[in-house]
Backbone:
């Protein structure tokens, strides 16, 4: 289990909001598109129950151009 394991949707969204991301639109199924106007970056977030797989969270952070260290420091 890596250090990005064990995060749920609500915690990920709370931290993304701290980076300036806002809900943009609903995508296919249970996925949402979030947007950061300052960096002009989009990220697709799956809204599923339970913990987010670590690889999925890493992909979200890559799309958002947020380092895992910065993500973990945000509260």
Residues:
């Amino acid at each position: 289990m890596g250090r990005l394991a064990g995060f749920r949707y609500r915690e990920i969204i709370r931290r993304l909001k701290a980076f300036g991301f806002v809900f943009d639109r609903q995508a296919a199924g249970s996925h949402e598109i979030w947007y950061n106007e300052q960096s002009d970056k989009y990220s697709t977030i799956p809204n599923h129950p339970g913990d987010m797989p670590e690889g999925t969270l890493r992909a979200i952070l890559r799309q958002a151009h947020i380092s895992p260290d910065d993500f973990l420091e945000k509260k």
In short: The mean pLDDT is 94. The chain has one domain: 9-73. DSSP finds three helices and three strands in the chain.
